[in-house]
Amino acid sequence: MFTDTIELKDFEKMDPEYQDLLKRILAIQADCEIGGPHLYVEDMLPAAPTRVERLIVARTAAEEVDHYRKMARLAGELGVDLSPLLNRPNRERYVDAFRGRISTWEDYALFGFLIDRIGRYQLEEFVGGSYAPLDRILPDVLKEEEGHIDHGTNKTAELAAKGGEQKERVQKVLNYWYAKALDMFGKSQSRRSERYVHWRIKRRTNAEAREHYIREVNPLIEAMGLEVPDPTAERRFV
Amino acid sequence: MPMAPNTEAIDQHLKGFVQALHAAVNRAVPHVQDDPKLVDRAIEDCKEILDVVLEGNVSEWLK
Predict the structure, then answer these.
(1) Is the ipTM of this complex over 0.95?
(2) How far is B50 from B44, CA to CA, in rounded Å?
(3) pLDDT of A174-187, one tens digit each?
(4) Contacts of A83 in chain B (CB under 8 A)
(5) Do A79 and B29 touch (CB under 8 A)?
(6) Which of A45, A94, A105, A117 could be cross-linked to A31 through a Cys-Cys bond (beta carbons 3.0 to 4.6 Å apart)?
(7) Which residues of chain B does A37 touch, with a Cβ-Cβ cutoff of 8 Å?
(8) pTM (two decimals)
(9) Is the dihedral of CA A54, A60, A62, A65 positive or negative?
(10) Which of A41, A61, A80 sits opposite B4 (nearest CB)?
(11) pLDDT in tens, A36-82
């Protein structure tokens, strides 16, 4: 296990595998950060149920753009231009969950509840990691992600509490995003995932992080009176 | 390690967009109850700013 802490000035001296992995993870993180607004701004900013919710959508998008900016800056310092990610078509996003479009309030709520929570998991992987410039930007980014998760969780709970057809719609949307969420951790038997841990770019393997996520989110789903979806249904990566 | 071209300039542009978005939201929040027109204008401003960001026409920004 690698134990040093790396600054920008040390980067060029690092093993090529380390350089490649760090550049790759910054690109993926930036792609996910800007991929969020691409999913929901067009339909949800003008059409969220209330003015307050529209302002929350705008603030959330602003924060995600800023997270993208921070990741893109770190990558730029390493010689990688991530500006093409700004307008990459959704269908070409790195992670499957960002390849569609969010056009209902239920989807927006579930996205915050389940997918932004994974954003937090991915970011927590880097806390105390070997690349100090990345570690330093995390506290503010994580705090904002927590706000997005809380909003999504509260809205999902409110919608589920209405019961009847509304609750059925939430359950259907939950089933869709739950599979996308579990897939976001990647393959359990991933050699690359182990190399990230070796270099202390990440703290946990894909399988460990997915297991922690399931242990956190399943009780929340049950507390809302919803059914935890089959964790093997509609999955691409196990 | 040489920086990627325009890293600093793109970063500054994005910072400006983010600040403008927060300013629009902060201008509207105190008036959610008493001035719906002002709030709607702020939301429209946010949409316009975000459209420019997500269009990602960086070469235009850098002119």
Answers:
(1) yes
(2) 10
(3) 999 999 999 999 99
(4) 6, 10, 56, 58
(5) no
(6) A94
(7) 50, 53-54
(8) 0.97
(9) negative
(10) A80
(11) 999 999 999 999 999 999 999 999 999 999 999 999 999 999 999 99
